Amino acid sequence: MTTIDTENRREIARLPARPISLEDRYDPPANFLEIEVLNPETHGFAGKRYTDYEVRMK
């Protein structure tokens, strides 16, 4: 099995590494995206059917 040396990867090296307390780790997020999918409407016939939805984001 191959191993990847994460110390040499530029993508990971640029990420800030700060310790996270247990309280911060399990608290609800400060911001989040709420998505509602409403009003499904099915169109077409037989094998050429598709459904449109209304999507609301808060």
Automatic annotation (TrEMBL):
Main localization, broad class = cytoplasm
Question: What keyword terms does UniProt attach to this protein?
Answer: Cytoplasm, Membrane, Transport
Which ranges form a coiled coil?
none
GO BP terms, alphabetized: endocytic recycling; late endosome to Golgi transport
The membrane topology noted for this protein in its Swiss-Prot or TrEMBL record is: Peripheral membrane protein
**What is the annotated localization of this protein?**
Cytoplasm; Endomembrane system; Membrane
Q: Which GO terms describe its cellular component?
A: early endosome membrane; retromer complex
Q: Which InterPro entries match?
A: Sorting_Nexin
Q: Respond yes or no to whether keyword Endoplasmic reticulum is given for this record.
A: no
State the superkingdom.
Eukaryota
MF terms per GO, please? phosphatidylinositol-3-phosphate binding
Q: What family does the database annotate?
A: Belongs to the sorting nexin family.
Q: Know the name of this protein?
A: Uncharacterized protein
Q: Which organism is it from?
A: Rotaria magnacalcarata
